[in-house]
Amino acid sequence: MTPVDSSNQPISRLPLEGKNVVLGVSGSIAAYKAADFTSKLVQTGATVDVILTSSAREFVGKSTFEALTHRPVTTGLWEANSELSIDHVALALRADCLIIAPATANTLAKLAVGISDDPLTATYLATEAPVIVAPAMDADMFASPSNRRNVATLESDGVKIAGPAEGRLASGLVGKGRMVDPEYLVGLVRQAIGRNGDYTGRNVIVSAGGTRQPIDPVRFISNRSTGKMGYAIAEAARDRGANVTLVTAAALPAPAGCDVVSTATVEDMRNVIVPASKNADLLVMAAAISDFSPVNVADSKIKKKDSGTMSLELFKVEDFMPLATGPKLVKVAFAAETNDLEENAQAKAAPKGAAFVVANNVIEPGSGFGTDTNKVTFVDANGVTEPQPIMPKADVAHAILDRALPLLSE
Ligand SMILES: Cc1cc2nc3c(=O)[nH]c(=O)nc-3n(C[C@H](O)[C@H](O)[C@H](O)COP(=O)(O)O)c2cc1C
User: Fold this and answer.
1) Dihedral of CA 289/292/296/299: which sign?
2) Which pLDDT band, with edges at 50, 70 and 90, does 51 fall under?
3) Residue of 20, 81, 150, 223 with catalytic role
């Protein structure tokens, strides 16, 4: 079976292989979502130890988590033969990350004042690992002065507060109190564990997706880019400690831990990327930027004609990559080609100011738009080529970051 990452893309190396995640589940109605979250965490390759509070056990059973993690689940400090009854801080010491999802108002309050009357709160106090909490509760409970005070205390103690999200709550009311998506939480765990990686402190901008140039209020011209490659680069850079800005024209779910700027046209992307480049270490232009755009954009929908043809006059859009500059900036371009791959890619490197170009033949099987794998060649302005094997896009992303890292300024 091919391993997949949190976005269901195949990968050869699981992102949290060899890492220990402790998941605390407290007694919110959202506890049922913790089973899905556990499964997704296990799929990252992490060893997952689950602690259930006694209230959580009213909502979900121990066996579910034991079956998902293939490990004993902790429910009490005084359980016979449990690891914690012998060494009550064992999980705290082993953890690379502690995440509490869902986190009740009660548990947040106990954490904020340092109460340690169950395995979860004891583990929180004893761990030096990064801690994430995902509150889930009624909107009025979340907004109550005491809960807000507790959340602020935890935040100033260095705890990452994930959410809660707005939406329909178990009460039937709509408000801010939903536990954030398990998929998103997996991204936050990956970011927390990678916080001291080789891209720590680096500002990385990644563009993704295919730009859309309007024809009229309902139509546009675009291309087949799905954004998968750019998102994989953004996630990989995040997992290695970078501060990532993802400038996207794609409709994929926003990866956790990245600043995501949604754009549509080339102009939108230019207006974000050119100024942001001034402070960036690395710009990876994985977006498929439109080369041509309609000369006239109609104010109202162009009417259908019964017969005949219609022509659209297009102008050549100026490439803004040469305008993206900064004192530390290293640039990586992409070249989607269907022929003369290396020559075409080499010709693009110097005008764009790219340290290297990631060239791919988009009509080769397993390569290019929409696929989960890619076969690329790194080409520089001098024509030095480094062909890469066919790889999952997550691995291509890491190969690009590996290639760029030694080029970054001290
Ligand atoms: C049906 C039901 C649903 C509950 N849902 C929530 C919730 O979503 N969030 C919350 O903070 N408390 C919720 N509570 C209250 C907690 O279960 C209660 O405060 C408990 O003491 C929490 O214990 P724990 O933090 O140790 O898990 C709920 C209680 C019941 C009976």
Assistant:
1) negative
2) very high
3) 223
Is CATH 3.10.620.30 what the domain over 199-407 is classified as, yes or no? no
pLDDT value at position 32?
Answer: 96
Give residue-wise pLDDT tens across range 192-225.
999 999 999 999 999 999 999 999 999 999 998 8
The pTM of the full predicted model, rounded to 2 decimals, is 0.89
Q: 96: CA distance to ligand 1 center in Å?
A: 27
SS3 per residue for 264-311: CCHHHHHHHHHHHHCCCCEEEECCECCCEEECCCCCCCCCCCCCCCCC
Nearest CA to ligand 1 atom 11: 104
The domain over range 20-192 is classified in CATH as 3.40.50.1950: yes
> Which pLDDT score is estimated for 261?
97
| 243 a catalytic residue | no
Residues 6+ apart with CB under 8 A from 145: none
In Å, how far are 69, 113, 130, 155 from 158, measured between CA atoms? 28, 14, 8, 5
